[in-house]
């Protein structure tokens, strides 16, 4: 083990973070302390929408830091107000929308759980519903909606009255909605391996939630802020949720999260029921505004769609690949067996960062700014990594 790994093992909680010691980034590349360059197609797990050290990001951080960076939630700031209005415009909430700023996806979802409780207490319902294979975060409320034994079992008891259902139309129809205060849905399940729901799933969830006086809360932490080629993935489904949660790409790498409410759900919180010291401070919201402006001014959503199609086409016929899932630049590359860990490691050795959310799926979530050069480099490195693993797999088969 190298010295930094010893330090990490001794000083950091034993929860991961040992793949490399990264010291610098630029565009879609990062460098480790030994000067090795990696093409970063994970983007900080769907966060660095403008890539690394983008001038717009750097200017926003440095200019705002030089003026006013933090004031607490006793005060409003122009940056916070403007980003709230911008999110309402992009989400199409109309006048009735409201925004609460948090610092992470988990915190945004924790806020949404409290929103669901406020609604449930108003209408006399206590149940929460989420989907099998969902990921909403690691704090106790968000974790209660994240049904994975490794994540949940050591932390029981969790929130009561939570039901997990499959992502099928039948499961929605068969659910007993009588005690459901809210249903939480990721439009695409990123951590589950970029899993898309069957056609009409969100629409049916919307209909049933409305009929049964339950909130539909979409978790757009991973899919939101342009990642799928629309500002928010729910917009492609032709529905309007009661609330959505955001984080990850919202400020391109600066920590920021948000809960955005639509319609009557905007009236549920009242003074004293929730808050956050850092949430929505002028520094984070200035960066959020700069990222949105960069995406809008350069029509980066169109690039997300085009590059996504290019990448899908480029990997489809490679060895071990059986297909792809996802939209825009949130892509799952499906392999013909449990090779994802080996492919991720082979890619890393060749200077390419991807991840393996499941045994047989590789996830990529590169910057919205990628062009032909990055697509070509990715395709070359990924094909080489697959060939490394394929060689080993066929040797094993022949043995
Ligand atoms: N919700 C979704 C859909 C996510 O993908 C994640 C993180 O991967 C979270 C919530 C948690 O966000 P954070 O890690 O910022 O707390």
Give a summary of the structure in a few sentences:
The chain is α/β, with parallel strands linked by helices and 399 residues long.
What is the secondary structure topology, with strand pairs?
Elements: H1 3-11, E1 22-26, E2 29-32, E3 37-40, H2 43-46, H3 55-65, H4 78-91, E4 98-102, H5 105-123, E5 127-131, H6 140-144, H7 149-152, E6 162-165, H8 169-174, E7 180-185, E8 188-189, E9 195-196, H9 201-211, E10 215-219, E11 243-246, E12 257-261, H10 282-297, H11 300-316, E13 321-327, E14 330-335, H12 340-349, E15 352-353, E16 355-358, E17 361-364, H13 372-398
Parallel strand pairs: 3-15, 5-6, 5-7, 7-10, 10-11
Antiparallel strand pairs: 1-2, 2-3, 4-12, 8-9, 11-12, 13-14, 14-17, 16-17
Helix pairs in contact: 3-10, 4-10, 11-13, 12-13
Protein described:
With 399 residues, the protein is of the alpha/beta class. It has 2 domains: 3-54 and 299-394, Aspartate Aminotransferase, domain 1 (Alpha-Beta Complex); 57-297, 3-Layer(aba) Sandwich (Aspartate Aminotransferase, domain 2), CATH 3.40.640. 38% of the residues lie in helices and 19% in strands. A 7-stranded mixed sheet has the order 4-12-11-10-7-5-6, with helices on both faces. A 4-stranded mixed sheet has the order 1-2-3-15. Strands 13-14-17-16 form a 4-stranded antiparallel sheet. Strand 16 and strand 17 (361-364) form a beta hairpin. Helix 4 (78-91) crosses helix 10 (282-297) and helix 12 packs across helix 13 (372-398). The longest helix is centred in the last third of the chain and has 27 residues, at 372-398. It is globular and about 60 Å long. The chain starts with a helix and ends with a helix. Residues 45, 104-106, 109, 135-137, 186, 190-191, 219, 221-222, 247 line the site of pyridoxal-5'-phosphate.
